Amino acid sequence: MMRLPRFTYCAPxxxxxxxxxxxxxxxxxVVAGGTDVLPNMKRRQQTPTVLVGxxxxxxxxxxxxxxxxxxxxxxxxxxxxxxxxxxxRYTGLWQAVSQIAxxxxxxxxxxxxxxxxxxxxxxxxxxxxWRKAIDFCMKKDGETCWVAPSSxxxxxxxxxxxxxxxxxxxxxxxxxxxxxxxxxPVADLYRNDGIAYMTRGRDELLTTVRLPDATGWRSAYWxxxxxxxxxxxxxxxxxxxxxxxxxxxxxxxxxxxxVASCPVEAKDAAASLVGGRLTDESITGAxxxxxxxxxxxxxxxxxxxxxxxxxxxxxxxxxREVSGDDVRELRRRVSRAALxx
Length: 341
Description:
Order of helices and strands: EHEHEEEHHHHHHHEEEEEEEHHHH
CATH architecture of the largest domain: 2-Layer Sandwich
Mean pLDDT: 96
Oligomer: single chain
Number of strands: 12
Helix content: 25-40%
Largest sheet: 5 strands, antiparallel
Structural class: alpha+beta
């Protein structure tokens, strides 16, 4: 049985109190649902001496619906799914959250927790004794990235479902520490490094995520995994497209997940759609362009070459869905669920 290491648990009631504790303790970590942090601690991947519990911070669970939608980072994934405004106006986000883990874990896990999810790797997500047997890895306690031993950086993969979709939707995040508050695009939360994968400071709390007005936008999220539930993505395609009254695309974003240490925007693919309609030809062309920046590595399930080929298919599925095609049977076959709003 793997046991947690010893730690001190703090239970603040406000954001300011939580930020003060983070500022005071240099190795403190925050925990909300604990569905990722606590298993990591049992495997000795993360060993904070202080845990700052956020479940009692009520303001982190607030939702404000007006010009767009502002969501507290502490809202549980289950409560997020229950918001009609998410299902009706931000369908891609609803689809992404629906496919995270299991109902039990969605009852505990939070939006902020999924956005800050630790990067994953076959050589890293093992118990302490297994990792010690290979002389550890670059991400924790070692010097070599066993995915690519000549690599100078860790290649652990980003496995969050919500981040690619929120980037595609143009969401912004608010971060707060003991001395300041700042707002940045969700895309700027991440860097392509398996160890230092977030730009969020050690003493900063992710407090809110704000979605812009969804008028004219349609979105979809498709996820590749071995099983129809529970598994992390080995590839995901998040698509958001805005069209004018005559069906012309005037803005688009295509974001890939689980193909690098951060979400990857396929900017050329999205740009190719602007100014035209979503036709079979334009969708095929965009899907081909989207596959180019994808660089899957041998750090998760399935072969990296097959995952690379699947990028074209999954971007095609997502674009077909936002174009209005009937993809219900395809959804059931690929995602094992209808997932239509």
